[in-house]
Design goal:
Elements: E1 2-3, E2 12-18, E3 21-28, E4 33-38, E5 43-55, E6 60-64, E7 67-71, E8 77-92, E9 101-104, H1 106-120, H2 126-147, H3 151-162, H4 170-177, H5 181-192, H6 196-214, H7 219-225, H8 231-242, H9 246-252
Parallel strand pairs: 1-4
Antiparallel strand pairs: 2-3, 3-8, 4-8, 5-6, 5-7, 5-8, 7-9
Helix pairs in contact: 1-2, 1-6, 6-8
């Protein structure tokens, strides 16, 4: 079995060292197939656009835009990229990966956009910024992995991700999962580090951040689609999370 670098087989690649991490943005052409191989370092990857199917010895993951992928070092797998190819941000050298994982996570997508910006417009502080973003992405992965350790908490996460625009109440969610609301709230916070309401708000804002970068849809429409009552509420919440208004965020990431 071949041991290859994550940039092998790509059409384009940007790569920088950042502390113990190597941070890359890579692109694959349509319908590219990489036969069974492994990488020398553990990886976290975020699909920015396109799609890839990763096939392991015992499982298979379909990863589209907004999906965070984790692979331990020397994990045998094969890749098949979709009809539109794929663009992926990759962090090598993380210490939080012990098994393959794939999960849709718009927080990871938002971090991937910030990484792309640093790679595209480097300066003297880019290595430090990339190292911080790599650590933040590692934390996102760690929480996703922890949540997947409990089947019903994992079920709660999946329901909230699917219904973040119009989420169920805590009582409705608890009834759907067959647990007491107080037990749900306690275990959810223990697993994810957030309350249910904060988690849903974060999904909405990270989804909105992705839409701001990838589309020209007006801010008011994005606010509505993300589930906010009005644009001013959206703007305040977005600035509190990202440190800038939605308009400035869009301009900075273009």
């Amino acid at each position: 079995m071949s041991v290859i670098a994550v940039v092998d087989g790509t059409t384009t690649a940007e790569r920088r060292e950042a502390g113990r991490f190597a941070v890359s943005e890579i692109a694959f052409a349509r319908d590219v197939r990489l036969e069974r191989h492994e990488h020398p370092r553990a990886c976290i990857a975020v699909v920015v656009c396109g799609q890839v199917r990763k096939t392991y010895a015992r499982t298979e993951h379909e990863a589209a835009r907004g999906t965070v992928i984790a692979m331990p070092s020397h994990e045998p797998h094969a890749d098949l990229f979709g009809t539109a190819g794929a663009r992926i941000v990759v962090i090598e050298g993380t210490e939080t990966v012990d098994r393959p994982l794939a999960a849709e996570d718009w927080r990871a997508a938002a971090l991937a956009h910030r990484i792309r910006l640093e790679l595209a417009r480097p300066d003297a502080l880019t290595p430090l910024a990339l190292e911080g973003l790599a650590l933040e992405l590692s934390a996102v992965l760690g929480r996703a992995r922890t949540a997947s350790g409990s089947s019903w908490v994992d079920g709660a996460v999946e329901i909230l991700r699917a219904r973040f625009r119009d989420p169920p109440s805590a009582h409705e969610l608890a009834a759907q999962l067959g647990v007491h609301p107080a037990h749900l709230a306690r275990c959810f916070r223990a697993r994810t580090g957030e309350s249910i309401g904060s988690y849903v708000r974060g999904i909405r804002l990270d989804w909105a951040g992705d839409r701001l970068v990838r589309t020209n849809v007006p801010l008011a429409r994005i606010a509505c689609e993300a589930g906010f009552a009005d644009q001013s509420h959206f703007t305040r919440s977005f600035a509190a999370r990202f440190g800038v208004t939605p308009g400035r965020y869009r301009s900075a990431h273009r």
